[in-house]
Design a protein that fits this description.
The protein folds into two domains: 138 residues, ATPase, nucleotide binding domain (Nucleotidyltransferase, domain 5, 2-Layer Sandwich), CATH 3.30.420.40; 177 residues, 2-Layer Sandwich (Nucleotidyltransferase, domain 5), CATH 3.30.420. It has 347 residues and is of the alpha/beta class. The chain contains ten helices and twelve strands. The structure holds 5'-O-[(R)-(carboxyoxy)(hydroxy)phosphoryl]adenosine and zinc ion. The site of zinc ion has 5 residues, from helix 4.
Length: 347
């Protein structure tokens, strides 16, 4: 039996988890900071790193307690050290290094984006390789070709906004609030996708993604094309003039276009790569329509598509421990002088 303590602090979730043998989650503690950033409509890096500092030790202690183990029982400590907000990452990395040093336990750093693809295994998925990985989150929209659980090459990624970021901005345009993905999802259920919004395709052979044009098309669609008068630009319609039903219809139209864009990228990659399955991860995988469309393309390609359980879609440390376990098993160890990086395999 191998017990890994996972630590995650790359953005605005402070998380710790104990995972047994890479797939059995004994504890999963996530302290979200949504309430600290909500008034700014997005994550403020300085606020995030200070909140991580306050929360990291209580979160780790809770994860150990909930798993009914002691620190001595841990075989190794895994931490996401890339990519992410540097001030946030450093808090988790400093905590992991300190524990590794004081307990004389191995330290393993992992790529947060690749770790998202370990989430489906936490609810029992048996993943065969090579696999196509799709990570759709607030910071990333990346297609990865995995030759095994920890070896990946990036096939394509967003050239502007990440899909989750586009969901968040769309929710803000529609006056729904923040974080916006779940709010757009809920609003879409009351609307109909009556508006035709673009499904942007990037040029060339890489299955890259682009979401900023879709976001602008939504803004102009809802508020009208900007008018210039007296050297100033303004929208003909205020959001307060848009009826509730219209908001729902725009949310639904945006969601259809964003999900189609993601699905098109996956189909492009599946057309060019022979894989055993698709494995998916990231906060946007909580989206109802995306889950439905992914399940239906699995049938047409005749391969399994492994989705994470909803609780493992958004950032968590169980996925970090999951990837840490596989690296531990192949003998990967990091030195105590290892540091954090804002860039990872897909950035
Ligand atoms: O994976 P995650 O916690 O963060 C990063 O690693 O970046 O994903 C957070 C993102 C946010 O942009 C949030 O709006 C989006 O996931 N999200 C959703 C849904 N739930 C969360 N997007 C669409 N539909 C949802 N149901
Ligand atoms: Zn993430």
């Amino acid at each position: 039996m191998t017990l890994i303590l996972g630590i995650e602090s790359s953005c605005d979730e402070t998380a710790a988890s104990i995972v047994k043998d890479g797939c059995e989650v004994l504890s999963n503690v996530v302290a979200s900071q949504d309430e600290l950033h909500i008034e700014y409509g997005g994550v403020v890096p300085e606020i995030a790193s200070r909140a991580h500092l306050e929360r990291i030790l209580p979160v780790i202690i809770e994860a150990i307690d909930n798993a009914n183990i002691s620190l001595d029982d841990i075989d190794a400590i895994a931490v996401g050290n890339r990519p992410g907000l540097i001030g946030s990452l450093l808090v988790g990395v400093a905590a992991a290094k300190t524990l590794a040093w004081t307990l004389s336990k191995p330290l393993i750093t992992v790529d947060h984006v690749v770790a998202h693809l370990c989430a489906p295994a936490l609810n029992g998925a048996d993943i065969s390789y090579p696999a196509l990985g799709i990570v759709v989150s607030g910071g990333h929209t990346s297609l990865l070709l995995l030759s095994d659980v920890s070896t990946a090459v990036c096939l394509g990624k967003t050239i502007d906004d990440a899909a989750g970021e586009a969901f968040d901005k769309a929710a803000s345009i529609l006056g729904l609030g923040w974080p916006g993905g779940a709010l757009i999802d809920a609003a879409s259920k009351k609307g109909t996708p009556v508006h035709q919004l673009p499904r942007p395709k990037t040029k060339g052979n890489r299955p890259d993604f682009s979401f900023s044009g879709l976001k602008t098309a939504l803004l102009y669609g809802v508020r009208g094309n900007p008018i210039r008068k007296d050297g100033k630009s303004f929208f003909p319609r205020a959001i307060s003039e848009v009826s509730e039903q219209e908001i729902f219809d725009w949310a639904s139209s945006f969601q259809e276009a964003a999900v189609d864009t993601i699905i098109n990228g996956i189909q492009h990659a599946l057309g060019n790569n022979r894989v055993q399955c698709v494995v998916a991860g990231g906060g946007v995988l909580a989206n109802t329509l995306l889950r439905k469309k992914l399940s239906s393309i699995a049938g047409s390609y005749n391969i399994p598509i492994h989705l994470p359980d909803i609780k493992y879609c958004v950032d968590n440390a169980a996925m970090i421990a999951g990837l840490g376990y596989h690296l531990f098993e192949i003998g990967h160890r990091d030195q105590l002088n290892v540091t954090a990086s804002p860039k990872g395999i897909a950035s």
